[in-house]
């Protein structure tokens, strides 16, 4: 498993939508349809970015990252991490450790870029 890496672009919307929808299959019992769509993923990429985890040449995890001031309704000093998704077959195999390590480093890196 590769450590979490940078931002996929608009060409990756279908792969990201599929990943999120597979990760959130458990929600099907109370949602009508998929968790997200390629259109929503494209809008989210435009308003922030996704950080992805790769395994065997494909996506196995992703998280939406919106920096301070990018998420409506949140204080301008707060960042937002959401839509954390890991393929069901990859859950329980250590990807959480990768996300945890990345999450601890990310605020320091974001602060240095300002």
Describe the structure.
The protein is of the alpha+beta class. Strands 1-2-3 form a three-stranded antiparallel β-sheet. A hairpin with a 2-residue loop joins strand 1 and strand 2. Helix 1 packs across helix 2.
Keywords:
alpha+beta, 20% strand, 3 strands, 114 residues, 3 helices, globular, three-stranded antiparallel sheet, single chain, Aminopeptidase
SS-derived structural category: alpha+beta
What does the overall shape look like?
Answer: globular
* CA(first)-CA(last) distance: 30 Å
Strands in their spatial order, largest beta sheet: 1-2-3
**Helix amount:** 25-40%
Counted up, domains total 1
Beta-strand percent range: 15-25%
Oligomer: single chain
CATH architecture: 3-Layer(aba) Sandwich
**SSE order in H/E notation?**
HHEEEH
């Amino acid at each position: 498993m590769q450590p979490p890496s940078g931002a996929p672009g608009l060409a990756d919307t279908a792969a990201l939508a599929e990943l999120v929808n597979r990760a959130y299959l458990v929600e099907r019992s109370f949602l009508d349809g998929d968790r997200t769509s390629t259109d929503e993923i494209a809008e989210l990429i435009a308003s922030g970015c996704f950080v992805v985890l790769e395994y065997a040449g494909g996506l196995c995890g992703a998280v939406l990252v919106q920096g301070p001031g990018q998420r409506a309704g949140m204080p301008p000093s707060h960042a937002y991490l959401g839509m954390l998704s890991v393929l069901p077959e990859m859950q329980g195999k250590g990807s959480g450790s990768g996300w945890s390590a990345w999450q601890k480093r990310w605020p320091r890196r974001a602060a240095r870029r300002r």
